[in-house]
């Protein structure tokens, strides 16, 4: 382990954001903020789950912060 040899990559958007009560479930397979009938965008809900697993396999961590209605930031 080399704690001084770390890199952080952040991706931020100004999209719909994630409600606080749903934030803990994001990153689990097939989890999406909106239901299929109310969602205005496509996707399977696998992107963050796959990203999280890949990051963890490399001994990293994925952190998500979000403000509903303002956007989301994901840091690996």
Describe the structure.
The protein contains 2 helices and 3 strands; from the N terminus they run E-H-H-E-E. The protein has a 3-stranded antiparallel beta sheet with strand order 1-3-2, with no helix packed on it. Helix content is 20%, strand content 17%. It is of the alpha+beta class.
What structural category arises from helix and sheet content? alpha+beta
Poorly predicted sequence stretches spanning 5 or more consecutive residues: none
- Overall 3D shape: globular
Spatial separation of the terminal alpha carbons: 17 Å
Instruction: Give the helix level as a range of percent.
Output: 10-25%
Question: What percentage of amino acids are in beta strands?
Answer: 15-25%
Mean pLDDT: 80
Series of H and E elements: EHHEE
Q: What's the helix count?
A: 2
- How many beta-strand segments? 3
Radius of gyration: 14 Å
> How many strands, what sense, and barrel or not for the largest sheet?
3 strands, antiparallel
- Across the major sheet, the strand order is 1-3-2
Give the tags.
alpha+beta, 76 residues, 3 strands, globular
Offer a concise description of the structure.
The protein has 76 residues and is α+β, with helices and mostly antiparallel strands.
Question: How do the strands and helices of this protein lay out in sequence?
Answer:
Elements: E1 10-12, H1 20-23, H2 47-57, E2 63-67, E3 71-75
